[in-house]
Structure formats: structure tokens, C-alpha cells
Amino acid sequence: MPDAFHLRHRVSFSADTAQETLRQLPESAGVLALRGADETTQPYLTKAANLRRRAARLLAPAEGQTRRLNLRDRVAFVEWTTAGSDFESLLCLYQATAAFFSLPEARKRLKLFVPYTVRFVAENAFPRVYVTNRLAKNALNETYGPFPSRAAAERYADAMLDLFKLRRCWEELEPYPEHPGCVYGEMKKCLAPCQQRCTPEEYADESTRVRAFLETDGQSLLSTVAQERDDASAAMEFERAAELHARWQKVKSAADLAPELVTALPRLRAVLLQPCGEGEVTVFLVHGGCLTGPEIFATRDIRAARAQEETGSSLFAQPLTLQPVALEGESEAAGPEDRLRDLLQRLQKRAKTPADMALLGDHLALLKRWYYRPEKSRTGRIFFADKDWPWRRMLNGAAALGNRVVTAPETIA
């Protein structure tokens, strides 16, 4: 929780020993806090690609008249936490700002906005679908996202509704035959429950199909249309089969408008891997849209095993990977997959079902900001859970990230 967050390192600072103090700071990315002698005052917080360089700029003696911020005479303590990636730095800065200031202040400083989602209003007598950026605790199971923008969410909702005859109006309906209706009813794109042109059961069946489309990422309708197309083709009704194939393509285009990240928020589960030091990665768990972590995962043994497989030799190609093996009994050293399973179990024990909708919105905003970056400039890997975690792909991804040459991290705008 943000109120329990603490920066890992802390040293005293004075102008007389500034150089010695600065030499203790690492030349790596992380979050920096400069505090005065009064512990009750608010600190200066920032994230940096190089902690020592940023601290030196803020604490170096002022030279002549300059407008550069200088805190040399106001700082009594320097605190910092290192991070292996800009995503970890951003999450750490969010937690530090929430702890030292407040969650609303952290939200304001980091410019975090609740992502847009598509909501299915099931409690209404005549269910409908609409786009929103408000999270309601009692409607999370019917809320699908996060989308990169409002326009993207609206494109998906419009394309999906074009496949069905669900109402698009927002009013609380009190149907009667003389209701003026709307243009969608005139175009036969709505069952027009407002004018009682359908029974409640017929509208309920249509809304069930829409809900199934959202729950299955479009697969419910795709499989139905594909089966009808194949049956028509087998019956040599080729014109009918061609029409159904065109409809299948339309359904597929609508389903593809939802990125892989989009799902019902309580089912949003993923493992996020970020680079750390040489031979290590940091692991985050996304559980119900909330972030838990990081945990450090060593990848050296994965790299050694892969190198041995590629060279075909475990002695001459990789002599440093040899380890003593007991002559009797089983080896006590856990393999990479076992270590990763244990790590995820620890994260899952720490993960909690989101209860604070504002906190959930912040975590979704942080995840969205990273995920929807261009893939070429997005550092790290994400893996989604199906029935089980993709263990082999996760290990390969961890090995690839752990083998990287760590440079100054990218900036998440």
C-alpha cells in the first residue's frame, strides 16, 4: 500500500560533505527524494535515469546567476530507490508520491486518468452498452478494458453493435406503442423495445448474445457464423456461404478492434517482465487490473542452459556453468520453472481484490501507459493467463530480457 512505502536508501547531506554523499548514489535509474531537517515537511521527489547525475545537478553549488533549481542549502537527507526500468521507476514514483503526499496528488502529478472501457449494463430491464471512464465496484464484471483512448473504445463498441440489434439510446425505457423511437429502429438496426416491437424475451436473447461476444472476445459469434458458412458450403449453397463468409470477416474485423489487454476487469491477469540488472528481471503480477510486485527473478541458469543447447557442449562452451552434483539423492537446486512458479505464488498471495476504485483506476492508467506504447519502443514483456500461465514463453522472455545490455531506460510519457 502507498502509505507503507519507503525508499530503500537514506544518507545525511551537508554542503561540506556533498561530494562524499553524492558518490554513494548509484549511476542508475530510480526515484530520488531530497528532504529537509524537518521530517514533517514535504520532500522534493523525482525519477531519474541517472540518480547521481540528477542529485549533483540539484545539490551542486550555484554558479553565478542561474534559474536552475538548487536545493543545496535546504537538504539534510537524500533518499533513493533504484529501478531497472522506467516502468518500475514510474510505479515507484507513484507509490512514493502517494506516501509522502496523497493519492489525489500522485494522480495529479503523474497525470493519471482512468482509461476508457466498454460497459454492459446488465441491471437494466433492457440492457445496453456504452463507453465510460468511470469505474463502479458493482459493475466491474460487466466492464471491459482498458482501451488506449475513448475513440478506440467507441470504434469497438460501434462495430460490435452493428452486428446485433441492441438499443443504443441512454434513456430509462418505459415502452409504449406510440413511442417516437429512433433512427436505428427505422433502419432495422434495433429491436425497438421502446415501441414494443419485440417481446422482453426476444430482447433478453439478443442481449445475451452481446454479452457472450464481450466475454469471449468475439469467438461466440465467430464460431456460430463459421459453422453456418461450412454447413451452407457442404449443402452446395455457395451464394449463401459467400454471404456468411463476408459476415464472418465483418465479425472478425470488429473483434480485432479490441487489443489483447481488453477483457472483463476482474479477469485481467497477466505477468509483466521488466529488465533489471545483468542476469535478472523484475516480475510484476497484474491481478484484477491491480499491480503487485516487483520480485527479482534470476535468469543466469536459463541463459546457460540455452547456450549449452545451441553449442551442444556443456563443458568447453560454458565451463563456468558447471556445478557440483550430489552422487546420491536428488539435487536440491530448483530449476528455473520451479523458481518462477514459487515467485508467482508469492505475488498471488500478496495480490488483493481491488476495493478502492480510484486506486484501481491508477493502476490501470499505469498499465495502459506502458502497454499502448509502440511495440518497438516498449521495454519489457507481458504474458496473459489462459487456463494456465505460458511457462515456457515466460522463461524465454525472461532470458531474453536478462541477457540485455542495460542502458538508460526509455521514458514513459
UniProtKB/TrEMBL annotation:
Highest taxon of source: Bacteria
UniProt GO BP: DNA damage response
Gene Ontology CC annotation, any one: excinuclease repair complex
Designated name of the protein: Excinuclease ABC subunit C
Species: Terriglobus albidus
